[in-house]
Amino acid sequence: MHDRTPTGLERVIANPVMGVEVTFLKAVDDPGGDQVESLVRIPAGEIGPPPHYHLDFEERFTAVEGTLHMDLGDQRGLRLEPGESVLVPRTVRHRYYNAGDRDAVFRFEATPGAAYERATRAAFGLARDGRTDHRGVPRELLDKALMFDLAGSFAEGPPLWLQKILTRAGVRVAVALGRDPGFRRYTEASPHAPDRRPAT
């Protein structure tokens, strides 16, 4: 596997705030359909992202090493041991975390995967720039609105209709102020990125 995708994006990215590392085994610009697959390493004791749900894609989590903990709908504290998996349909509230004493590794699949990959790259980029809290959530309201819109994702709690109104309003303000709604700084390859793929 090359260390960059066909369009030059890095396959391995890290969130320095959460200590999470993602390796894109199949990125959205790889041939073979719209599914994105990644291998995710989450450190011991990491509480993971807040409970949330997605409107635009479903997810499958499969434990590879250690124990992956999840909350899924009304179920709390699910434990996935290596080889065990769970499907998260659209609109179902969930979160993942590691309550163990060693790293956990899981395989993650998103279908379709474009929104997941863009949002993950953007969120990790914001974290590297010091623009997220300890759970990986953007600190600024405008960044948060742009991220929710990019991912098609919403938080547990407030009614969906209210979150949609606030997200749309935030995106309009952000764009009017010159913000990039696609976070292309993080989601597109730099034209100066080296091409490390071997010549064919």
Brief account:
It comes from Catenuloplanes nepalensis. The chain has 200 residues and is of the alpha+beta class.
CATH architecture designation: Sandwich
Count of β-strands: 11
Sheet with the most strands, sense and barrel status: 6 strands, antiparallel
Overall pLDDT level: 93
CATH class: Mainly Beta
Spatial strand sequence of the major β-sheet: 1-2-3-10-5-8
Would you write up a description of this structure?
The protein is α+β, with helices and mostly antiparallel strands and 200 residues long. The chain has a single domain (12-187), classed as Jelly Rolls. The chain is built from four helices and eleven strands; from the N terminus they run ββββββββββααβαα. Strands 1-2-3-10-5-8 form a six-stranded antiparallel beta sheet, with helices on one face. It has a three-stranded antiparallel beta sheet with strand order 7-6-9, with no helix packed on it. A two-stranded antiparallel sheet has the order 4-11. The longest helix has 17 residues, at 160-176. It is globular and about 45 Å long. The protein starts with 11 loop residues before the first strand and ends in a 13-residue tail after the last helix.
